[in-house]
Write a structure and sequence with these properties.
Blueprint lengths: L1 E7 L9 H12 L3 E7 L9 H11 L3 E5 L5 H12 L6 E4 L1 H5 L1 H5 L6 E3 L4 H10 L8 E5 L2 E4 L21 H7 L3 E4 L2 E2 L10 H10 L9 E2 L2 H14 L5 E4 L8 H14 L3 E6 L6 H10 L1 E9 L3 H8 L5 H13 L3 E8 L6 H14 L3 E6 L7 H9 L4 H6 L13 H12 L1 H8 L4 H12 L2 H25 L4 E3 L5 E4 L10
Amino acid sequence: MKILFIYPNINAQIGFNYGIAYISGLLKQHGIETHLLNINEKLDYPLDPERIKRDVLAIRPDIIGLSVLTNQYKYALEIAGSIKEYLDVPIIFGGIHPTMDPIGTLSQECVDYICVGEGEEAILELMQQGNPKGIRNIGYKEQRRAVLEPLRPYTDITKLPFKDYEIFDFQRMIDAKDGWVGLTASRGCPFRCTYCLNHKIMGLYKDHGHLPRQYLRRHTVDEMIQEIEYLISHYKGIRMFIFDDDIFTFDKKWLREFTGRYKKVTDIGFVCNAHARVFDEETARLLKEAGCRIVKFGLESGSDRIRRNVLHRYMSNNDIGHAFDVAHRVGLHTSAFVMVGLPHETKADIMETVELLARIQPGRFRWSLFFPFIGTKAHSIAEQSGQIDFEKMLHLDNFTDETCMVLGDDVDLLVDKVKTMFCTFVNGYANIDRRYVELVRLVEEADKETWRKEKDRFLKSEDEINKEAEEKGTTHYAVKYNPFMGVRSDWQDDSLSA
């Protein structure tokens, strides 16, 4: 038996798909042949139907599986529909989108099966059995009626083999990402933020009799050390490990053991996610002493009202300030994630986000535009507010370039201004230099027509002020590494680009 995975990741950053890597590793362990088309223009594989056709026909798989994010759903349907014209094999959609919208996904003519939730054991059974009936986590059609099988218990990730790195042409990915290598030490998250898929997944599994407390699972420290040693010995040019766990620092006992072992194995730095409410000095010192280079915090908004009522992020600005103070005190570089364009967000809420960043002075910050992912509570909140442009939502590839939210003329205008000149707003509100303060004033005062006409001039002024600040040695934020990241100018290590 042979399966071809297709990962559409178009007009997006280069991504390593953990789901495919885990599933492929398990299938190979059972003697099943696996292949992958990793469709991303940055990896020299753009969305090219003729090239995909040649590759699919060269492989001749028994089944084709697409891992689908909501922003990539339209491309997945296009690819699957095209394949159906020249190859009669079952096509299964898995990943976040079919999990969040199983019936909608299964209703598509080009989709034969779906996988809801975790797919390792389900896809293995499907490959071995040859048909989907009775396989938990699988959905299929029976006389054009959708059938969703029950969900199996959460996967015991300590029983899984290593992720299959080879299927991704991993050395090429390392080179393309300048030596950055992603890892996951756990699955799940103890928090239930409205914009995230975790609360929906926990709810789905709970409906099938599986306890939410079983959702958060960790690999053993031994497993992680073995995987890191494997990567170091099999690949070259690794400059940084990035742990993509939702919250890497949550289990203090595990963290103590891991950090003690990690520094004995390698001096390669690492990056990880933490939560402001559960971040203390011991955690910060453990990370620093083990070689952590960046600790990242999801703040999302500087408005306590938005965090509580819209996002269900129950932490205060004091919690956030304390976490950043602790991290900075031990010498950790910090990163803050924020969003703008949120449901019910006002101009004052947006400016509270700017003011919070100006106050806590992270080493860097990244911003995105809120996207109402289907199946999340945030989608329901946004839908009930009447603030989603559903037509535009269907055509967005990512959540950094444009927004599908319509919050009112004044708020929409400020969202565009802040998204375009976020660094200058933070520089101005931090009172770093009077020229930033004056530029922010001019931008804020600009009406819609003036902003449209003068945007390029404002951006040119921003560049000029940044250049002067650089020459003077004035610490300031400027866009670096990608268009939605501001980095403090006193950070000089270009190996830390994520």
